[in-house]
Design a protein that fits this description.
alpha/beta, TIM Barrel, 2 domains, eight-stranded parallel sheet, three-stranded antiparallel sheet, 14 helices, about 40% helix, RNA-binding
Length: about 375
Amino acid sequence: MCSCFEIKVKGAKFGPRTGLLSTGHGVISSPFFMPVATKGAVKFVTHEELQMDMGVECLISNAFINYLNPGLSLIAKAGGLHKFMGWDKGLFTDSGGFQLILDHFVHKISDKGVVFRNPFDKSLELVSPEKAILIENALGSDVAMCLDHQPVFGKSRTDYLDSLIRTIEWAEVCKKTFDKNENKINKKQLLFGITQGGVHIDLRVKAAQALNEIGFDGIAIGGFGIGEAQRDMYNVISASKKVIPEHKPVYVMGIGSPLELLNAVGCGADIFDSAYPTRMARHGLIFTHSGPLKIDRGVHKQSFVPLDNECGCFVCKKYSRAYLHHLYKTHEQNGLLLLSYHNTFFVTNLMKNIRTSINEGTFWEFKKDFEKKYVGKS
RNA sequence: GCUGCGAUAGUUUAGCGGUUUAGAAUCCUCGGUUGUGGUCCGAGGGACCUGAGUUCGACUCUCAGUCGCGGCC
């Protein structure tokens, strides 16, 4: 067990903090947000833009999806997922546990693992916790995530308890498999455990304690972003922070709206990922410093101002809302390119500003100012 | 001047003498979207050219007018 995480600046106990996560592909400044590259690419944004323009140091891909297509042997031939993708910075892989909330994806769940339906050829495929880890080892990501069991939102406490127990049992198997495998292509690969338990604080605390005992490089809080009240989520993060050792990075999975990121950092979380910014861009919802904006609305038809005049991205420097509205409404692909770029830039820039404010001791003022200007829900 | 065809949401259109509160797409407004997933999903708004007639009943049939496209003198 290495100490992969170093705390740089922290405020109050359990409050916001900056740190450094050491991986096989560089040291990543936290708190950070990972754009989602499920199939090895962030939709409509190139690696070059992410790295050169936005300073993104880490992405997350999906082990299960890559395993199904293009498959492990091809990725092995390429020399691992990093080389296959042409990405030489940090890279997490999700095990595929999140897909468990999607009915059409899952055939059956048992204690042995999950029988998935292959979306590419409809065949059935058992993914056990052992197999999930071996896949992630073979892909050579910098951080492998355990296979977890996430119930759909709104289940009973008993259901959450069941999924939690299963997730912890699987976490033990994942850890053993990970430690035993000496053929990892990424010798510095890290392993994170995931808590479940819905909004039940006592379940979440038990889950975190159980993961502490097993011993992971970092702890992820899973199961959010699917319908629960935001206040419940922050309570869970805060409660979890109290039982997770201070030197462990805390990763809140699936969170990606500006206000959620800001609040979760305030609760002491270090790492995030979400398809939200890019998916919202594809659906025409644009983040700005004065709140979310829907580019398809008729009011933008003759609006010759930038999406966000406080944003430094090239889209905001160069193009008007009227032009982007036109591209979006006429289904011109460049519209999605530019909007996805902006939203991703916005979120990564927000994280950059959050890190600066923590380092300078002004996080809470920064948060208050941001929220004051940011009118709207997400 | 004569004549043929046509006229339904902002746009492109479906349809019928009564079971149609006129259907669709687009458009407009609003909501949703968060560890695969579709420039996606959901709700709402908006129309039978005008007038007269036939008929129990006309957006639908007849006539006239207006407008559009075409032909002829």
